[in-house]
Amino acid sequence: MTTTSVSTFSAPKGTYDLIPPDSAEFLAVREALAAPLRRAGYGYVETPGFEQVELFSRGVGESTDIVTKEMYTLTTRGGDELALRPEGTASVLRAALQANLHRGALPVKLWYSGSYYRYERPQAGRYRHFSQIGAEALGAEDPALDAELIILADDAYRSLGLRGFRLLLNSLGDRECRPVYRAALQEFLRRLDLDEETRRRIEINPLRVLDDKREAVQRQLTDAPMMRDHLCEACKAYHEQVRELLTAAGVAFEDDPRLVRGLDYYTRTTFEFVHDGLGSQSAVGGGGRYDGLSEMIGGPELPSVGWALGVDRTVLALRAEGVRPQVAAGPRVYAVPLGEEARRTLFGVVTRLRREGVAADFAFGGKGLKNAMKSANRSGARWALVLGERDLAEGTVQLKDLESGEQEAVPLDRVVTAVQAKVG
Ligand code: HAM
Fold it and tell me: Rounded to two decimals, what is the model's pTM?
């Protein structure tokens, strides 16, 4: 995430490269966020990085910022209108419908990991290319499924050692009660003192007005009607069950009647995980139920629920808390050859060690002993194998403990077993 550069080209604005050692932290976070999903029966899905523009304009919503301002669109030579995917839900549902997964056992539970693209104003925690781990459970209307997903996200964050996050929960109603509420909200909003653009928003997407961050707008919204007070009996009962299941699982949440998500497909359960150490970009993850999305993109009725967690923001949140995720171990053994023949022999030993599952590295580039030992120490390996001419003549190799400095000669023909015994 640093921007100093000595090369001619730099990563485009709002993007950054993942390079060691930070990249190990990202991999560890991706792994940890996905692990609870694998345990809960979610299967891995991967879709293209671009789709037809219309999938997102119909799915995410014509009036959302994502569709109107933030999509990277292109016209192919063949005349197709494509967009780099700004989110994963519409694509995953499209893929499931295309493969007829919805005709099999339901719910279809899928997880994914990948890059997403939004032309946003870049700032800390907000990028034009970012990474999500997502989960979608398609084809079941069951509060336990909503609760399962929320619990899995909570477990995922906790397994990383993240503590300073809060879960905000709301219900946005369904096709019965939402239109009634929408009309009541519009009527209220039309009476307020608002600018032209916001007035237009009242007619297209009044719920988004509730999310307006400006103080002058918020001040007028104190008495705005709330979805909570307009939920139909079925939505109320459904939401109550989700809340009870979360409470029984020990997952703390805050009811947030003003939680409106930036995508139009949500119905009933909506939620967001926010972290207070991130400044204005506080959402580390979010999701909800989208019972009408399948029909919106031309599919059958398929009530579904899902979430996506931001990998970049989770890494920032961990850093803000001073928590370092457990990263995969580097090499255990570092091989240092002295001379041409030793190089060939020891390279063979490294290959055999790796084939036996021992993480090993090698002093490449014909370094002298001093430089090679420096590299050995820097590699993080606990052990070094040093092979000089005299060792070669005696058919041995020096196995050195880089922590204590002690070393012993082990027979070359038994070196793999000897190293395995040490590294365990
Ligand atoms: P979303 O809230 O737009 O939801 O994004 C989910 C998460 O992705 C956010 O909470 C945030 O952590 C991360 N994120 C979004 N935009 C950026 C950005 N510009 N830079 C860095 N991180 C970002 C969705 O995408 C829905 N598809 C979630 C979902 C799945 N709902 C149902 N199923």
Answer: 0.93
